[in-house]
Every structure is written in structure tokens, then in C-alpha cells.
Amino acid sequence: MNATGPFWDDNVTAWPTSFDDASINDEYADFEDEDAHRSEILYEFITNGILLNVVGVLGIMGNVISMIILTRPQMRSSINYLLTGLARCDTVLILTSVFLFGIPAVYKYYQSSFLVGYYFRIYPFLCAVVYPIALMTQTVSVYLTLTVTLERFVAVCHPLRARSLCTYGRARIYVVVIIAFSVVYNLSRFWEVSIEEEWHPALNMTIYTPVPSPLRNNHLYISIYIHWLYLFFIYFFPFTCLAILNTAIYRQVRKANRERQKLSRLQKKEIGLATMLLCVVVVFFICNILALIANVLEAFYGLIVDKMVKTSNLLVTINSSVNFIIYVIFGEKFKRLFFKLFCTHGPFCGVGRESPDCTFHEESVVLSNGETLRSYSIRAANANGSGRSGCGGGKPVPCVYYPARASSRADRANRNWTNNELTVTTSLTSGCSKFY
Q1: What is the pairing mode between strands 360-366 and 421-427?
Q2: Count of alpha carbons within 13 Å of 301, Cβ hemisphere only?
Q3: Alpha-carbon span 371 to 427, nearest angstrom
Q4: Domain ranges of the chain
Q5: pLDDT in tens, 319-337
Q6: 361 by DSSP, 3-state: which?
Q7: What is the rounded CA–CA span in Å between residue 5 and residue 309?
Q8: What fold characterizes domain 24-342?
Q9: Which of 98, 222, 239, 406 has its CB surrounded by the most CB atoms within 10 Å?
Q10: What value does the mean pLDDT of the chain take?
Q11: Which residue range or ranges hold the G-protein coupled receptors family 1 profile domain (predicted)?
């Protein structure tokens, strides 16, 4: 997203329909200007009016689904808390992009009377509030991505320190600190916009126009805050850290893949999660590099390439919309839980040991006397967040209680406590579960 305020150069008048220039050359030049203007309007309509709005709507849906899944009890972890915060932030950023860029682009192309009230009466006041919020959420998104990468770096490259550093409580602190920093850093943005009122004879109505405030026109403010600080805090510093940390993570992942047979189940899980987040960061780089180039051109060369700015706004919106797709492709547990919650039929919807709820795994055993027993493997924390299940009517689901003290070595051997699971033998001939 461009830091200079892309709404300063909005046109409030309709395209010219007639030319009364005496010179043929001037008339030809005016036609060229009109064609260039129409070309810019068309490009903005395609990139921001169509693509940005469509991607934004789909991105909001994906982020909402991500938040639902990542906040499930069985998904509770420090990394998922950070990803939930990132999804919320991305949702707000998409909404601001639609209000600032998507809807105005549709009006500029169609000149629809349906959007006249929004463009001339609502949009100017939204700019004064929504644009600072957009930059705040962009800052939060950048540093949450950096925090997620730092968390994965510790978990993959320094696993012994991960237990103390990568905790749920610390993740909440990180999110609060990032939000506080983003609000304080972008607070002056609320004083960058002024609203001017004027009469528009063609529309026969009073219109409002957002214009740069005296603070926004201050050359020292533009040089230090708009250009240098923005480039450092939003691009140079986080991009450098992301490049260094992800290079280290990538080397560790390659090393682990070569020795995959020696890895434990937990280590394989951490490597898989690190691979997924590497893809998130790669997409982040790709979608934000054009915005970096646009800001560098403006800060150091005074060049504002309108099409580049509009394309970069689209890419920033895409970056906030595609994380759900990455989670589904690379996150096995996320994918299983998604199919279980939102797909009533499918290959991933059955309940078993690998189901997201991790409720129970059933095996039938036939004894010598013909009685059928079923063995259920139950995790300590089920989908409801507790270790108890009712044993009423309907299909019998075993309850989990603390087992009685074993009376013999054979009984103790029959208990399976591997991976925090309790194996319970239940007789189908009885009304409720029996625990040994």
C-alpha cells in the first residue's frame, strides 16, 4: 500500500465531452490526454474495481474460516494464536482496500448515479479515518508475519529454547505490543487529511473532496516520516529480518529432510509447519515487493507511476487473502479440521485416530467366548476441551475417568498411555462403559 495517500489525485469532474480549441494540434493533444485518461480509468477498474473486490470478498471468507479453525480447542498453540491475529488483521486490511480503492474504481469507470452519494459524500470522510486504519493494519500484518517467522526460527533452529519462548501467553503479549506500536507509529496519519466542501454544477449538489492537510504538505514531515521512516519500519527492517530468518529455517528444513528417517513425530510436525510458513513469507515478499519499488521511486526519484501504485494495492490485498489457501495445502491438521467442519461428505470427514477432534479410534476384538469387545483410544483432551464424554443412549461413547490402581502386572501392561492416550475396553453387552 502506498504511503502517500492515493486519493489525493482523484478527479471530481466528469470526462470532457467537447473541445473548442482553435488549434488542431491542441485539439489532438486534448484527445490524446482523454485517451490516456480513459486508459488509466480502465486499468484502475480492472485491477481495483474487479480483481481487488473479487479477491477481497473471497479473502474475507477465507480469513473468517481460518479464524474459526485456528481458534478451535485442539488447535490451541502459540503459532496458531499469532496466525489468528494475522487473519483478523488481514480481514480489516481487505475491508479498507475495498472502501478506499475498490468501490471508487467502480464509480470512476461507470459514473453510476447509484455510487454518486458514496463517492462525493461518504468516501471523503472515510479517507480521513479508514486510510490511517489501513496503514495501522498493514503495520500489524508486517510485524505479525515477522513474529511468526521468529517463532518458527526458534522452534526449528533452537528447539530446546522453544518450550520457554514459544508459549501461548508470550504470543498474546507479542500481539498486544505489535498493535500498540502500530497505533502509535501511525497516529499522525489522522491529521494528514482535510475535507473541502464545494458546489458541483454538473451534479447540482454539494460535494466533499479529501485534500492534503498542512501537516501532509510539510516537506520535513514528508521527507522524514512519509519516506524514510515508512521505508525503514515497513520494508527495509522487516524484509531484512525475514530474509535472514527464513534462510536459516530453509537450511534447517533441507537438513531435516535429508535425515527424515531419524526425526521424531514432533520434529516432523515442526518441520512441516515451518515449510508452510515459509510459503506464507514467500507470498508476502512477492506481493509487497512492487509496493516497495513504488515507494522507493517516489522517495528518491520523485516518480509516481500510477499503474504501479494501483497494481501494488491489488497485490497487498491478494497477500491478505491467500493465507487460507496455503493453510489448506500445507497444513494437514488444518485441512482435516476444515473438511470435518465445512464438508459433510468427503474422504476427510470420517472420525478416526487422525481426525481433527481426536475423539476416539475404534477397533473390534472377538473373544473366545464369542463376546465382542471394542477398544477405544481416547485422547486426554477431546473436542469439547475436557476428558469426559456422556454414556447415555444412542451410539455408546466411552467416558474417561482416572483408572483404578492396577491389581496385577498384567492389568498394568494392558493400559496404553503412549502419546497421552488411554485405551479403554468396553463391552457391548453392557449398558455403559467398563474401565479396567
Answers
A1: unpaired
A2: 8
A3: 8
A4: 24-342, 360-427
A5: 999 999 999 998 888 999 9
A6: strand
A7: 10
A8: Rhopdopsin 7-helix transmembrane proteins (1.20.1070)
A9: 98
A10: 77
A11: 62-327
